[in-house]
Specification:
With 290 residues, the chain is of the alpha/beta class. It is 39% helix and 24% strand. The protein contains eleven helices and twelve strands. β9, α7 and β10 form a beta-alpha-beta unit. The radius of gyration is 19 Å and the shape is globular. The N and C termini lie far apart (48 Å).
């Protein structure tokens, strides 16, 4: 069945290697959040997804990953030519998708190492032996400057905000996915931890892997060097560009979208020219710093 789906999509001209979002509409608790998102992420891309809080960025990546709370009412999500809109989260993961969550859950009674090993083996035809796993885990924790003893604690239980975020990146490093969706992975991290996380991301960047990164912190984008950027307002992608767009928003905020493009920002909790990438992250980091 998958063969015929792929063949059909190829005939219709959809690129075989990409994460393609087409006219995506998503509801959360009967409220429409995404209102027709169109976006393509190709292998090798590192895309910075920007926009004020509450405009659909996290909704987009949760919908891509198949979170049941986020209901797709229209449109499609296509990975490498296969329409995965109705796939379960584990099926999407096996297609190469990975989500590093903004608020990782604590799971009492599940040992972190057991969870990590199960996650790795779910993506392999032949499971890793215990020796192979701990050798891999030891190398990965050293890359992130994480203590190995975190692996023997319950999953995220009692972890600081920074430890939870490092643990998300640890999963990504161990699984080696093709499409990495990172939701404010830098919030709650101190400067050293941000450097460690950014180093893992840059080490993993390749022509075969792509990243979609949400952040309000210009420092992370400066470290990982995105080749593309996109701005989400009112549940739609309203503007795409390069690094210059990130720099402009960091300096001036989002007010220029209204003055230059006539885009009205529906949710206006603060004056948009008072919100920059760095301001949002600095406040968040000061509250949650590890």
């Amino acid at each position: 069945m998958t063969y015929f789906i792929v063949l059909s999509l190829t005939i219709r001209g959809i690129p075989m290697k990409s994460l393609l979002i087409q006219d995506l509409h998503v509801k959360v608790e009967e409220k429409e959040i995404l209102k027709g998102v169109n976006l393509e992420i190709k292998p090798g891309d590192t895309l910075a997804l920007l926009g004020p809080n509450g405009h659909g960025k996290s909704t987009l990546i949760n919908a891509i990953m198949g979170h049941p709370k986020y209901v797709v009412t229209k449109g499609s999500i296509i990975v490498d030519g296969v329409d995965i809109t109705n796939f379960t989260p584990d099926e999407r993961s096996k297609m190469g998708l990975f989500l590093a969550m903004q608020y990782p859950s604590e799971v009492p009674g599940v040992i972190n190492a057991d969870f990590l090993r199960a996650a790795i083996n779910a993506h392999k035809e032949k499971p890793l032996s215990l020796y192979q796993f701990y050798r891999l885990l030891d190398n990965a924790t050293k890359q992130l400057n994480m203590p190995l003893d975190l692996a023997n604690r319950n999953l995220n239980e009692g972890f600081s905000g920074g430890e939870k975020k490092r643990n998300e990146i640890l999963q990504m490093l161990l699984i080696q996915p093709h499409y990495c969706l990172l939701d404010e992975i830098d919030s709650g991290l101190d400067v050293d931890a941000i450097n460690d996380v950014a180093k893992v991301i840059t080490d993993m960047q390749s022509n075969e892997r792509s990243f979609l990164i949400i952040s309000h912190y210009a420092r992370l984008f400066n470290l990982v060097n995105p080749n593309r950027s996109a701005v989400m307002i009112n549940g739609k992608i309203v503007l795409e560009g390069g690094k210059e767009l990130i720099q402009r928003i960091d300096r001036f905020g989002y007010e220029f979208l209204k003055t230059e493009y006539g885009i009205n920002i529906e949710k206006d909790e603060k004056p948009m020219n008072a919100i920059s990438i760095g301001v949002c992250a600095t406040k968040e980091a000061s509250k949650n710093v590890k």
